[in-house]
Amino acid sequence: MPSENTMPTDHHRADGLPRGAPFELDGEGRVRGWSAEAEALLGYPPQAVEGRLVTELISTASGETMMRHRDGRLIPCRLGLVPEVTDEDSLVWSVRLADLTGDTQSERERAAFEALYTESPLGLFILGSDLRIVRLKKPPKGFRASRPRTRSGAA
Questions:
Q1: Is the pTM of this model over 0.70?
Q2: What's the rounded mean pLDDT across residues 34-40?
């Protein structure tokens, strides 16, 4: 029986999240929506994960994000997160998992990220599985970023 919070199964999103298995978290990091793709990737039906903290499903090893399959094995994944505000003004996170098993592109992406982190003048932060900052790179002194309003063309 499908959950009332079953996620849609579209694969083409304009928000930059990777293709793959979508699910949704509430502001406290609890699963509130689960897709058929997430079930296929990790083996959990919606009823088994909804309401659970996402940290129960995530393991980090050697700096890689690993998701825990229902059978106990760890699956290397790319994790994309986008914060959203609901009509009730509460924060939710749209999440996409991309399975990286056997993916050599992930090595290229890691190298690109390391170059961005070490060479770029941009300030960056990395969130851990508990959504806390685990790595921070401040922008150089005097670096001035534009405000979102300015970027979108509004005065």
A1: no
A2: 94
